[in-house]
From TrEMBL:
Source species: Ramlibacter humi
One GO MF term attached to the UniProt entry: acryloyl-CoA reductase (NADPH) activity
Pfam families the UniProt entry points to: ADH_N, ADH_zinc_N
Name by which UniProt lists this protein: Oxidoreductase
Domain Enoyl reductase (ER), chain residue ranges per copy: 11-322
Length: 326
C-alpha cells in the first residue's frame, strides 16, 4: 500500500490523500518510487477542480515526479536509475506523481542530471523547466545579454521566479512585474534589477506603447501579454507560456506588423525529448542552486490539497516541493 492524492468524480468531485495499492497503478513499463513531487499551477487547477485538467477518473494528481526506478521492462531504464518526469499528460490522462509510487512510460523519463538531487529537480519542476524553455526560445530568436531590459511577468510565481534567476545569471538586465509589494527584496535577491507593479500591465492598453523590452517571458496572458507585446522593442521577442491572468489575448497586430516583434509559444507538456534534455542540461549549468533553495518551500503530501487552494488564491511565493513520504 502507498499514499496518493486521488481525485475522483464518482458523483461529485473529491480530492483526498489516501492509501491505494499497486492494482491502482495504470499501464506502463517503468515503476518508480516517487521521492519528491511538486505543486504546479496546473496541479492546483486539477486539485481544486477549477479547470478541466483531468480527463480520466479516478486520477492521481501530479504532473511532475522524481525518484528511483524499482521495476522496468523498458530497454531505456533499469532498477536503481534515478529519473524525473515532467508532463506528457501525467496527472491529466495518466495517473500522476503526487504519490509514493507511479507507473510511467520509459520514453517519458529524463535521467536526473548529476547537478541536482531529486528534491532539487522537483523544486525546479515543470515551472522551472518551462522557464528554461522560454530562455531557450529567446536565445534561438537571437537574444543576447546587453541587448536591453528583459521583462518577466508573474515574477514571484514558479515560472517567473526561476526565469528571473536564470536570466539574471546569464547577464540580462531583468525587470520583474509582480502584484506582491512585499516581495520586492525577494525578487532583487533572485537578480531582478528593477521591479514594476503588475497593475501597470494588467489593464487594457494602447496597441503600440513606448518601446521598453528587448524580450519578455510572460506567464500571465490576457491584457498583460497584450501590453508586453505593445511595449516590446523593434525586432524583439515575447514568450507566451501561461494564463494566470486569463486565456484571452486582447491584442492587435500592430506590434507584429509595425515593429516586427515575435510571439513565441512555449509548451512543456509534449515538448520533444531532445528539447527536454537540452533544457535540463542548461538548468544544471545556469541555475544557482542557492537561489533555487530561496525560491523553494517544502510541504508534506498530506497538506497538498490545502496548499493547492493557497496557490490558486495567489498566496504562494516561488515553488512548493512535495515530500511524498510525509
Ligand atoms: N506552457 C506550459 O507548458 C506551462 C508550463 C508551466 C506553467 N504554465 C503556466 O504558466 C503560468 C504560471 O505558472 P506557475 O507555476 O508559475 O504559477 P504560479 O506559481 O501560481 O505563478 C503565477 C504568478 O502569476 C501572477 N498572477 C497570478 N494571478 C494573476 C493575475 N490575475 N494577473 C496578473 N498576474 C497574476 C502571480 O505573480 P505576482 O504575484 O508576482 O504578480 C503568480 O505568482 C500558469 O498559467 C501555468 O498554467 C504553462
Amino acid at each position: 500500500m502507498f499514499n496518493a492524492l486521488v481525485l475522483d468524480k464518482a458523483r461529485e468531485f473529491s480530492a483526498s490523500v489516501r492509501e491505494v495499492d499497486d492494482a491502482f497503478l495504470p499501464e506502463g513499463d517503468v515503476t518508480i518510487e516517487v521521492a519528491w513531487s511538486t505543486l504546479n499551477y496546473k496541479d492546483a487547477l486539477a486539485i481544486t477542480n477549477r479547470s478541466p485538467i483531468v480527463r480520466s477518473w479516478p486520477m492521481v494528481a501530479g504532473i511532475d515526479g522524481a525518484g528511483a526506478v524499482v521495476q522496468s521492462s523498458s530497454p531505456l531504464w533499469r532498477a536503481g536509475d534515478v529519473v524525473l518526469l515532467n508532463g506528457f499528460g501525467v496527472g491529466e490522462t495518466h495517473k500522476g506523481c503526487l504519490a509514493q509510487r507511479a507507473r510511467l512510460k520509459g520514453e517519458w523519463l529524463v535521467r536526473l542530471p548529476p547537478a541536482f538531487s531529486p528534491r532539487q529537480a522537483m523544486a525546479i519542476g515543470t515551472a522551472g523547466y518551462t522557464a528554461m524553455l522560454c530562455v531557450l526560445a529567446l536565445e534561438r530568436h537571437g537574444l543576447k545579454p546587453g541587448q536591453g531590459d528583459v521583462l518577466v511577468t508573474g515574477a514571484t510565481g514558479g515560472v517567473g521566479s526561476i526565469a528571473v534567476a536564470l536570466l539574471s545569471a546569464l547577464g540580462h538586465r531583468v525587470v520583474a512585474a509582480t502584484g506582491k509589494a512585499s516581495e520586492h527584496e525577494f525578487l532583487r535577491g533572485l537578480g531582478a534589477a528593477d521591479i514594476i507593479d503588475r497593475a501597470e500591465l494588467s489593464a487594457p492598453g494602447k496597441p503600440l506603447q513606448k518601446e521598453r523590452w528587448a524580450a519578455v517571458v510572460d506567464a500571465v496572458g490576457s491584457h498583460t501579454l497584450a501590453n508586453a507585446c505593445a511595449q516590446t522593442r523593434y525586432g524583439g521577442a515575447v514568450t507566451a507560456c501561461g494564463l494566470a491572468q486569463g486565456m484571452d489575448l486582447p491584442a492587435t497586430v500592430a506590434p507584429f506588423i509595425l515593429r516586427g516583434i515575435s510571439l513565441l509559444g512555449v509548451d512543456s507538456v509534449m515538448a520533444p525529448m531532445s528539447l527536454r534534455e537540452q533544457a535540463w542540461a542548461r538548468l544544471a549549468r545556469d541555475l544557482d542552486v542557492r537561489k533555487l533553495e530561496a525560491i523553494t518551500s517544502e510541504i508534506p503530501l498530506s497538506s497538498a490539497i490545502e496548499q493547492a487552494q493557497r496557490l490558486m488564491a495567489g498566496q504562494v511565493r516561488g515553488r512548493l516541493v512535495v515530500d511524498t513520504a510525509a
